[in-house]
Amino acid sequence: MSSNSISAYQNDIKKLREYLASRKPSMPPTQIDFEDLRDFLHWINELGMSPRSQSRVISGIKAFFKYLLIENYIERDPTELLESPKIGKRLPQILTVDEIDQIIGAIDLSLPEGQRNKAIIESLYSCGLRVSELIHLRLSNLYFDKGFIRVIGKGNKERLIPISRKAMQEINHYLEDRRHLAVDKNCEDILFLNRRGKQLTRVMIFVIVKKLVEKAGINKNISPHTFRHSFASHLIEGGADLRAIQDMLGHESITTTETYTHLDRTYLRETIIEHHPRS
């Protein structure tokens, strides 16, 4: 699993440890029963945790007890009857093309990091990258002569993604600036670097996006992942094949990709009218 997934599972177990420390400090995890876990759910609810976050924690706890069962630490899984809180399906926030242009227009190219940030935004939107894929993008993974980049996605799975001329242009401009950096020897093949010549962090990408959105005056809850959502939604609106979008996004299941079809009811209606034999 990715380091982010591992960290998330570890945080779930930490929550259980915190509960035991406050309520039953002498109880080992192997003695926890369903009643204890039900009390644990009340406890995390009292912490003010949202239903979606509670569901995330419960998922981690269930995985932990499944491990204990497989390894014969326990004989019965106490999470079998444990239910997650009901959460509605939340559609992702989407940016319009004009809003994306506003964000790019808010970048100050006179700053040393200006061109880098422009290349970052163009790459996120042009290729629908996850943040982890962006920060690990390598110079050796750029195949501009073919119009593709290679990314390492979830589960260390590789995929090739077409890249737009605009994104290639902005990256090439950034590479001119990058040549003047004192690059850390461990980061020589990493594309996007900070001012110290080291790899950018996930947090730094979030900060860059947040500042640009504020500067552009866009009143939406935007994260780097929003550009990935917008990438997929705009392709759907343009009539792109769902399977092709699934491949480009690196989705394990087509069901995940189908989320974006809910964002454009007009497109769906026109598709049915055009292609269904009874229309």
Which secondary structure elements does this structure contain, and how are they paired or packed?
Blueprint: H1 3-23, H2 34-46, H3 51-70, H4 97-105, H5 114-127, H6 131-135, E1 142-143, E2 148-152, E3 158-162, H7 165-178, H8 202-216, H9 224-237, H10 242-249, H11 254-258, H12 265-275
CATH architecture of the largest domain: Orthogonal Bundle
Write down the CATH topology of the largest domain.
hpI Integrase, Chain A
Beta-strand content bin? under 5%
User: Unreliable runs, pLDDT <50, ≥5 residues?
Assistant: none
Strand order of the largest sheet: 1-2-3
Shape descriptor reads: globular
Number of domains: 2
Extended strand count: 3
**Integer-rounded radius of gyration:** 23 Å
Helix content: 40-55%
The sequence of SSEs as H and E is: HHHHHHEEEHHHHHH
CATH first level of the largest domain: Mainly Alpha
Distance between the termini: 46 Å
Structural class per helix/strand content? mainly alpha
- Helix tally equals 12
Mean of pLDDT: 85
Main sheet?
Answer: 3 strands, antiparallel
